[in-house]
Amino acid sequence: MNQIFTEMGKSIERGDAPGVEKLVRAALEEGHSPLEIMQKGLVAPMEEIGVRFRDGELFVPEVLVAARAMQAGMGILKPLLSESDKASRAGTVVIGTVQGDIHDIGKNLVAMLLEGAGFEVIDVGIDVKPEVFVEAVKEHKADILGLSALLTTTMPAFKDVLAALEEAGLRSQVKVMVGGAPVTAEYAEKVGADGYAEDGPTAVEVARKLVS
Ligand code: B1M
Question: Average pLDDT in the 77-103 region?
Fold first, then answer.
């Protein structure tokens, strides 16, 4: 692995956003393409961090600071990616927390890990109405819609979003993945979702399967 990408990985792990930005600029000056920098310098280390989080070696705050550092680098590269670079990305995910629910720590973590895995992620926020999810799926031609719910009282909103997608004629065009602490695989299946993940790294695996 090129030294500059190794350094980028170390800066991501430390959560050193200015360091990552500096290294991304240096890599561009060295002549590496934005896509190569994204894949080798940002996505690869972030994937490793996801695995270490699942193995219990790292904790939520550490993953969040690493993901923020990774996103700082992504911010420089995004405008430089060509249309063909964008087409070679893993897929587009619209993600948000369902209506009535304002919990977003887990959803943000999932969004960051998906971005770190090379997905284009559009985060529509918290307390999101079904029609807002539908509009975002339409506008961004999403491959996956990710729905997060942390309350037993807001889990039924998954069904409302699925019904709104059906009504808009979009259900067959987008895979729906659900998650959140009270959600189970059985519940996901019951409401008709295409995928369920119990944590961020699993969400990345499930998203990859859903687009493959
Ligand atoms: Co809330 N809250 N909360 N809360 N809160 C819980 C969820 C609760 C279990 C606490 C408890 O009573 N023990 C309880 C829910 C009970 C239930 O429904 N069964 C609860 C309650 C009751 C409430 C209020 C109603 C309290 C009140 O006002 N009376 C209220 C509701 C507000 C609302 O939403 N309308 C409320 C408010 C809040 C705060 C604002 C104070 C704050 C949220 C801050 C924020 O998110 N910005 C908060 C917090 C922090 C929690 C706890 C303590 C922690 C949640 C969290 O961030 N976990 C929580 C108790 C708990 O879970 N231990 C609790 C860390 C995070 C990394 O994990 O979110 O599970 P998690 O995400 C994981 C996975 O679930 C999964 O991957 C993530 C990463 O591994 N995942 C997905 C999540 N989304 C996914 C989507 C996917 C795939 C995987 O695909 C798309």
Answer: 86
Q: Is the CB of 155 under 6 A from ligand 1?
A: no
Alpha helices (H) along the chain: 3-14, 17-29, 34-36, 44-54, 60-77, 83-87, 105-116, 130-140, 157-167, 185-191, 200-211
Domain 89-211 maps to which CATH number in 3.60.40.10, 3.40.50.280, 1.10.3720.10, 3.40.50.300?
A: 3.40.50.280
Q: What is the CATH number of domain 3-85?
A: 1.10.1240.10
Lowest mean pLDDT, pick from 112-116, 123-127, 169-173, 181-185: 112-116
Indicate the top mutation candidate among 63, 102, 150 to test ligand 1's pocket, ranked by most ligand atoms within 8 A of CB.
150
Q: Average pLDDT, whole number, for the chain?
A: 93
The pLDDT value recorded for residue 37 is 93
Using CA positions, which residue lies closest to atom 46 of ligand 1?
A: 103
